[in-house]
Amino acid sequence: MQNYIKYVMSHMLGPKYIDDMIRVTVCREFLESIKKNVHDQRPAWRIDAAEVDALCDSAFLISDHSLFTGTPRVELCVAVEIKPKCGFLPSSEFITKANAIKKSVTRFRMHQFLKLHQGEISKVSEYNPLDLFSGSKDRIYQAMTALFATPQNNFRIFLNGSLIFGGLGGGMDSSAVRSHETNTAIEDLIKVSGLQLPSFLELVSETIFSSGVLDQLLATQKLDVLDIEGAIHAYYNIISQPCMVCKNSGDPELLDQYSSLHSLPLEKRLKIVRDYLIASTAKDCSLMISFRPVDSGSTGSGYNSIFLESSNQSFEYKARFIDLDMKPLEKMVHYYELDQKIVNFYMKSDDPGGTPYDSTTRGTKVRKIQYHQ
């Protein structure tokens, strides 16, 4: 895991955006206490998703990016955590005609309807990852307003290291900072930072735009060239098992198309699966951006700075990617089955914003929701 982050993800995303991890020895009692804390905060449907292994003898120590290292508690530090999700639409020739909707509607959008049906969320988010990765200031801001309107577990705000807004990944948003607490949390943010909410979202948007922090993330996501519908065939060859997708397909045209993948040399098949799993890490990671106000013109801290013209304030910031876990090879079948389940359910749903999904037509609505809140 440490080598994967250090030599693969750091190379792909840029070493300045990834911190080194320190391996430390831990005892069972410590891990049991962590396990209890996690258990108490997680919803039932996520408890078994990532169990803490209390039998491990070591763990990784990483920085708390909701704070600046060494920042006294009396100083202000505001941080956001964003789960960008997949920032492009696939165009693989191996996507079947029945699943062609994947080429025009984002995976995030389609998955929202399945999550709503399963009780994992209470409403469908209007967030469009294509906006966040667009390179347009206006569309990035639009993405931020949509994330704020429906944070789920995709957007959080921290004030001096404490979560003040956003979810913990709970079912039906049950672990989120409650709505009646939202106004107080935002009022605290405004009081200590001097930023009104639109200005704060503008600060985050401007930082994402000017830093280009998402450029390499998008490039890494695009290592998934064939989509899971193509990569799954290379996977079955690697594990020397009969391809269940081909076995369950009665379409001669598709089988002929899939044969080109099954006849590839081993090295090419390995690369297809390897690139897909690396791209999966990039699609599922989080970005943390921390801010602290500074006097105009002050330098020497080693951090980047940004000037927000609308509020006439300067801020230092740091941006780091977290949750860069290596995806296990044995989950390839799960990824394929989940993909089919998401698309099949979405095709049965009534989504007026889905064909094709172009959030630019709904920007005004999202922004009005934001200001009302």
UniProtKB/TrEMBL annotation:
GO terms for biological process: inositol phosphate biosynthetic process. It comes from the Eukaryota. GO terms for molecular function: ATP binding; inositol-1,3,4,5,6-pentakisphosphate 2-kinase activity. InterPro entries: Ins_P5_2-kin, IP5_2-K_N_lobe. It is an enzyme of class 2 (transferase). The EXKPK motif is conserved in inositol-pentakisphosphate 2-kinases of both family 1 and 2. The gene is LOC103711547. Phosphorylates Ins(1,3,4,5,6)P5 at position 2 to form Ins(1,2,3,4,5,6)P6 (InsP6 or phytate). The lineage of its organism: Eukaryota, Viridiplantae, Streptophyta, Embryophyta, Tracheophyta. This is Inositol-pentakisphosphate 2-kinase. It catalyses: 1D-myo-inositol 1,3,4,5,6-pentakisphosphate + ATP = 1D-myo-inositol hexakisphosphate + ADP + H(+). Keywords: ATP-binding, Kinase, Nucleotide-binding, Transferase. Its EC number is 2.7.1.158. One of its GO terms (cellular component) is nucleus.
